[in-house]
Amino acid sequence: MLLVGATSSCLDKLPESAIPEGEAMQTFEDAEQILTGIYAGLKSSSLFSGTLTVMPDIQADLAYAVEDFSNTYGPAWLWNILSTDTDVESVYAGLYAIIGRCNFFLERVDQVKAQETDVDNIDYLDMYTGEIYTVRALCYSKLLECFCKAYDPETADKELGVVLRSKYSEPEPMKRASLKASYQFVLDDLKMAESLLDNDYDQYNTIYATAAAAQALHARVALYMQDWQTAIDYATKVIENDVFKLADGTVNYSETDTYLTYMWNYDSSFEIIWKIGFTTTSYGGALGQVFLNSNRDYTYTYPDYVPAEWVLNSYTSNDLRYNAYFYQYTTGYANGLTWPLLIKYFGNRNFISSANIYMVSMPKLFRLAEQYLIRAEAYCNLPTPNYSAASKDLTALRTKRFSGGAGAVTVSQSNWKETISEERVRELYMEGFRLNDLKRWHMGFERTPQSCSLPEGSSLKIEADDPRFVWPIPRHELEAPGSEIEPNESNN
Hints:
By secondary structure, the chain is mainly α. It has helices at 28-41, 51-59, 74-77, 86-115, 119-147, 179-196, 211-224, 228-239, 259-266, 289-292, 309-313, 321-325, 349-355, 368-381, 387-399, 416-428, 434-441, 475-479; strands spanning 63-65, 160-163, 176-178, 272-275, 305-307, 326-330, 338-342, 364-367, 445-446, 461-462. It has 18 helices and ten strands. It is globular and about 65 Å long.
C-alpha cells in the first residue's frame, strides 16, 4: 500500500491519506480528484489561512502581545522557538504533505494521458500539470523562506537549503540540498508550469494556479534571489496583464465599500491573482482570530496581538488603507485597552451574514500590489539603479490607496530602501512578508513597550542576522530513522 504524507518524519507518507497502489489516478476523473485534494490541502490552518501567514509577522516587529493573551504564537513572539514547537512542525509537515501529493500526481499523469482518448481531456491534463508545478514551487518557496537563510548569490551553493522530494514511489535521501540547488528546483518547477499554462486563461480572483500566478511567484522568487532583472521582467508580465487592476480605494464599489475595502470585506477583487477558495461549508483557519478573538462572547474583542504603534503611525491621514485595515475598539479585557485593532481579517461578510462565521477570510496568495513593490525594489537594486521607474511604480500603487490626489512619491539613492520597506509594511501588513524581508535586508529591530503590552518580549531587541530569523528544523525530522538532515543554527 502506498501512503501520501508523516509517521516518524514529515517526509514519510501520511497513513490517513493511504492510496492503494494501482488503484489511484488511473483515469481523467481520478486526476481531477487528486488535484481537488491538493487545493483542499492549501486550506490548512497551519498554512496560508493561519500560522504560515500571521506567525512570521507576529515574530517580527509588526504587532504586540497583549496582557492576558492566550499564548498563541507565544514562543514566536518571545523569539524562543524550539525544534519541538508545534506551530513550526505543522508548517513543515503541511507543506511537505502537499508536495507529496503533487509528486503523486506528477508520477502518474503521463499514464493517464497515454490511455486518454479525449483530446480536450489531454489538454486539461497538461493544464492541471502546470497548476501542480506551480503549487509545488509555491510550497518549496515557503519552506525556503521559513527554514533557510536569505539567498546570497555568492554563498548560496555553500548554504543549507531544504530536502528536495521530486518522486513519490522511489525513496530519496533525507538530506538537505544546497540553498542554490533548492532555489533552482523552484525555478525549474516554474519553468515547467509556464510551459504548460497559457495567459489566455488568466482570470482575476481565481482559486486556481494560472500562468499569471506562476509568473507572480517567479517575480517574488527572483527578488529573493537578488536576480533583479528577472524580477523586473516577471513582475512586468503581471503588471501589464490587462486581466488585473489595482483595487481603487478612491472609487466606490457599493454604498458601503470602495474597491479596496471590498477586496478585504468580500475576498473579491480585480487585484487578486490567486486566492484560496473557501465556502461556508469548506474553509480553513480564521486569520482574524488572534487579532480579534470576538467569539469569546460575541460582544467584546479579546485580541492576543494588536498592531505596533509605529506601524499605525506610519500611515498618513489620507492613506485609505488605514481605515480598511484597522478600527479602534475598546476590548473586553479588565485593563480596558482601547486600541486600533486589525480588521483586515474581520471575516468574509457573506460568511458572516449567511452562516455567522466570523474572522474567516480567504488567503490572497498573490496580489497585483506586491508585483509593483517587487518591481520597484528590483529597479533600485540594478547595477545602474532606475529610481525614476521605481518612483513611478510606487506612485501608481499609492495613487489607488490615497485620497485627495495624494500618493506621489520619489525615491533616490538615499531613501529608497526605507521608503520601500515602509510601503511594504503599510500595504502587506500581516500577509506574512515581514520576517523574511528583515532577514533578506539584514535588518534587526527593537520593541518598545506600548499600552497594555505583555511585559515579556515588549523590550526585545533583535540584531540583524540573528540565527533565529531562520526557524529550526523540527526535531523529529532530525531524529527520524535514516535522516541525514542537518540542523539550523536556531536548533542549537
